[in-house]
Structure formats: C-alpha cells, structure tokens
Amino acid sequence: MKALPRSEPMDTASPALVARKRPGGSYLASLGALYTLTLRQHLHGKRWLVLGALFLLPAVLAGVVRATAPDAPVGPPGMVEFLFVFMFIPQALLPLVALLYGSGVVQDEQEEQTLTYLLIRPIPRWAIYVVKVLATVTTTALLTAVFTALTYAVIYVGSGADLEAVLPRCAKAVGIHALVVVAYSCLFGVMSLFTKRTLVLGFVYAAFFEGLLANLPFSVRLLALIYYGRLIAYRSMGFVMTMPYGQKVDVAAEAWQLDVATDPGLLGHPSLRACVLVLAGVSVVCTALGAYLVSRREFHVKTPEG
C-alpha cells in the first residue's frame, strides 16, 4: 500500500488525519475520536443539506394537504399520516439516505485519499470499519427520527386531533423507521466493498427489491427489508380508517397486499418478534461481513503520481 507524500495538503476535518495526530492516545480514545469525527463529517457539507431538504418533503407536502383540504379527517390514524409516514418516507427516503451514507463508509476515505492514515494506526481494521458504520447508522437514524417526528407535528399539531393518541404512534413510527434505515445502511456499507458502483447497484436494489418485490403478494417479498418494517407497523399500530361515507377500510392491508380477509391474524407472515430479529440480524451480519472483508483486503489509494 502506498502512502501519500508528506507534502500533500491535508484536510484537517478528516477523521483519518485527526486520528493520525493522536499517537499517544489509547485504543478506546482513538476509536472514540474516529466515531466523533466521522459523525461530524456526516452532519456537515452538501450531503447533509441535500438529504435534509429531501426529508423535509413529507412535512411540506403534508402541510400543503392540510392547507388545501381543511375538512380532511384529523384523528389518528389518518390517510395523510399513512401516505407520508408509512408510504413516502420508507419507500423513497429511507433507502436513499442509507445508500448515500452507507456507500461512503470506506469509499469516502478512498476518494479523499485519507484511508492510508487510518490503516497505519495501531487499530485493527475491523474495528475501524465497525466504528465508521456505527457513526453512519447514528446519522441515518437521527435524520430519520427528527424528520419523521416533524412530519407528525405538521400533520397533527393544531388539527384538533387527540395528541395523547398521536404521540405513541409517532414514537412507534420513529422506532420502526430507525430499525429499517439502520439495516439499509449496513447493507449498503458492505455492498460498497464489492463494487465502486454502489450508488447504481443500490438504486437498482431499492427499485427492484424494495419497490417491486415488496409490493407483490408472494413469498419473494421476504427478500425486501421494507416488508418487515411494514409488518412491524401493522402488528403494532392500527390502520383501520373510517371513510367519508362511513365504511371502515384497512388501508395498510390493501396497500401492502396483506390478505386479512382469509388470514386475519397474518399467521402466514412473520411475527412481530421475527421481523425485529430479521432487521437486527441483517444489520449485525452485514457489519460483521464488512469488518471481515476490510480486515483481509488490501486497499489501493490514489496518489498524485497516479
């Protein structure tokens, strides 16, 4: 592996370079510094601004709906809540934010030519990868939690809805979204170790598995992470709504292709506990696999000489 020339200008904001400047630090202190500085990297720059703007879309659109349709039902569950919190955010935004952050766990350091300074530190490679993944999932879960709560606030605050009923739903939605986006982030993180075209492959995965297969009433949707998030939401929250003409409709069952007419208890689907274990298991397995690959691989870093 070829290190960068000493005369090359250094980006002092990079966690790799700062970690190199702590030769006397302890093992845990070095990992703590790497975590903090990676987190700081994620929460600054254009990527954060773009994703923040995208995450504002559900709240903005929900506000437009409230302003243009003031007579819409306000009690939870509501159609506006379902469309923006349980369809738009998990279907479009969670895979995107996880892809943009997860794909950069190692590739960002390679592109910035700072990976060498991390690898020459007396820290195991697997630990470097795990810490950077932890900082990444912290960022994606934090973004998801803040903007999901903001969307709930725009939908229900000042609407006359019972906030005591809204707050538990908001807390559950935040937890479900965080669990799903963490699994996505770990998956895209390990995916980035197999190809440099992670963004392309990630978009294909999100469109095919999370967009197409998850909406088919067949067992192939077991391959989609969003399917498990939907089941957790359905088993822990109610989605039966009273339509303007008085008929009660289970909008989640219809939208997610859950045949509750013939299987009211969803016995043919994974249980709530199994869904949580699958999402947590994907996160752990992907992180462990990524740590193993990083510990065994030789990385080639760009230099001014090419």
How are the SSEs placed, and which strands pair?
Blueprint (H helix, E strand, L loop, with lengths): L14 H6 L6 H16 L3 H23 L10 H24 L1 H8 L3 H5 L5 H32 L6 H29 L6 H15 L12 H12 L3 E3 L5 E3 H5 L16 H25 L10
Describe, in plain words, how this protein is organized in 3D.
With 306 residues, the protein is mostly helical. It is built from twelve helices and two strands. Strand 1 and strand 2 form a beta hairpin. Helix 4 runs antiparallel to helix 7, helix 4 packs parallel to helix 8 and helix 7 runs antiparallel to helix 12. The longest helix has 32 residues. The two termini are 13 Å apart. The N terminus is likely disordered.
Provide a quick synopsis of the model.
This protein has helices at residues 15-20, 27-42, 46-68, 79-102, 104-111, 115-119, 125-156, 163-191, 198-212, 225-236, 251-255, 272-296, and strands spanning 240-242, 248-250. It has 306 residues and is mainly α. Helix 3 (46-68) runs parallel beside helix 7.
